[in-house]
Specification:
The chain has 448 residues and is an alpha+beta fold. It contains 11 helices and 31 strands.
């Protein structure tokens, strides 16, 4: 009997064994009059009984009591234990388990999870970070950035390009989770109802819940049709609206741009990249096009269950019965070539840098920023007493249609709240910060 694979991504807790999915449910729980209900049963009442719902117990795994009247007697660890017990009753008691975990869980969370498993007599072989399990193919002369989505955010992991796959850096991006996107789409539908029908479907919890039940199907239709038709009240055939599919992309544009801004520091200008997306990420309408145009790189969509199947690369002979480990590297299975020809991203390049209400045009002649830069042709001079700012702190210029930023300081600079390590490409909407307290510069576009 092969080990069972348990992927604890809360957007779909998945138990996989012998090429079969035995269990797949969202990490959400309802405290009802009849006891706890999990997954789809809890989702059915998410909007009707919102105070009785908890959907962050996997992402906030701890032994502290939950600050909620409906769950005040429980910790998130208790709720995790309850879902583990429900899922793992579908396998034999003695079957060993490989856990695939999201990168936002740290060693303390995993230690607690191991303790929960021990209390349930679950035998864990190892813990494998999800991007490592999913990444089986290596790309010649290209680095991989892996994206996966959860209920409350997206994880982005920069993978190593060594002999084995491991994680060089991983970040968790809030405001881009499934629930945030669902809320944006529901708001779009609500506004369209009010505009087209003078009817607010949020007037009752029943119609509110009905829209949330249908939202996945509605969004899927937007990827296949130019316009979708939505019956917002099943008890009334007259309450039907039509929305253009592009409106669904516009509704989450702020979330998408936030994602792009947050992952940009993972990219270095002189490297080629492959963006590797899970199925759930790839199904988000319009996101692949934005990623391709923003980063001019190859996008690969993983097959369904690729993380679960990839976990079987773990060498079972390395398992120590007395000490389940964290597996930090797995072998690649193959190496492929990708088209590294760069796409045109000129439309995303800023034309000006805005500082202190003045817009400075960005050209091929560098703009130097610092406390002593008057010897250069173009400059933004900062106060000599600015703490954390070098005399020649950084420069910005255009090169081959790209806006290039170079940090020249000993203090460092921050792009979208992440430290810039090397030469970086800037885009419209970026926020640059230097010094302490921060001096801010906005990258903008002004029509010429």
């Amino acid at each position: 009997m092969s080990p069972a694979i348990l992927n604890i991504n809360n957007s779909g807790i998945c138990l996989f064994q012998n090429d079969r999915v035995l269990y797949k449910e969202v990490g959400i729980i309802l405290n009802s009059d009849d006891g706890f209900l999990l997954g789809s049963k809890a989702m059915d009442s998410r909007r009707i009984l919102p105070k009785n719902i908890n959907h962050d117990f996997w992402s906030n795994l701890s032994e502290a009591k939950i600050q909620s009247s409906s769950f005040s007697n429980y910790s998130s660890a208790d709720l995790v234990s309850y879902q583990l017990k429900e899922a793992l009753q579908l396998i034999n008691n003695n079957d060993p388990i490989i856990i695939i975990y999201p990168s936002y869980l740290d060693s303390e969370n995993l230690s607690l999870l191991l303790g929960i498993a021990n209390a349930l007599n679950i035998k864990i072989i190892t813990f494998i970070e999800s991007s490592i399990a999913a990444t089986k193919e290596k790309y010649f002369a290209s680095k991989i950035i892996h994206l996966d989505i959860h209920l409350h955010g997206i994880t982005a992991s920069l993978m190593s390009d060594k002999r084995d796959v491991s994680v060089e850096e991983s970040i968790f991006i809030e405001e881009c989770g499934l629930f945030q996107l669902y809320d944006s789409w529901i708001n779009l539908i609500t506004e369209s109802c009010i505009e087209q029908l003078r009817y607010d479907p949020m007037h009752s919890a029943k119609t509110d819940q009905m829209l949330y039940d249908k939202i996945i199907k509605i969004v899927d239709e937007t990827t296949k049709k130019n316009k979708v038709t939505i019956n917002v009240d099943p008890e009334s055939k007259s309450k039907v609206i039509k929305i253009g599919s592009s409106a669904f992309i516009d509704a989450v544009n702020t979330n998408y741009r936030h994602l792009v801004n947050k992952i940009r520091p993972l990219f270095s200008r002189n490297e080629n990249y492959v963006l590797q997306l899970t199925q759930q990420v790839a199904k988000l309408p319009g996101l692949i096009s934005l990623l391709e145009s923003s980063f001019s790189c190859f996008v690969r969509v993983l097959d369904d269950l690729e993380p679960e199947k990839g976990a079987y690369r773990f060498n079972l002979n390395a398992f120590d019965n007395n000490a389940p480990s964290i597996c930090r590297a797995l072998p690649y299975e193959s190496e492929n070539m990708v088209d590294t020809e760069k796409a045109d991203t000129g439309s995303f390049a800023p034309t000006h840098i805005l500082y202190d209400h003045v817009a400075y045009e960005i050209s091929e002649v560098p703009i130097y920023i610092g406390t002593d830069v008057k010897t250069y042709d173009r400059f933004i001079k900062l106060d000599t007493n600015s703490p954390g700012v070098s005399r020649k702190h950084c420069s910005i210029h255009m090169q081959e249609g790209h806006c290039i930023f170079n940090d020249l300081s000993r203090y460092g600079s921050y792009l979208n709240d992440r430290k810039v390590k090397e030469e970086t490409v800037l885009q419209i909407g970026d926020l640059l910060k230097i010094g302490s307290p921060s001096i801010e510069f906005n990258l903008i576009s002004i029509e010429r």
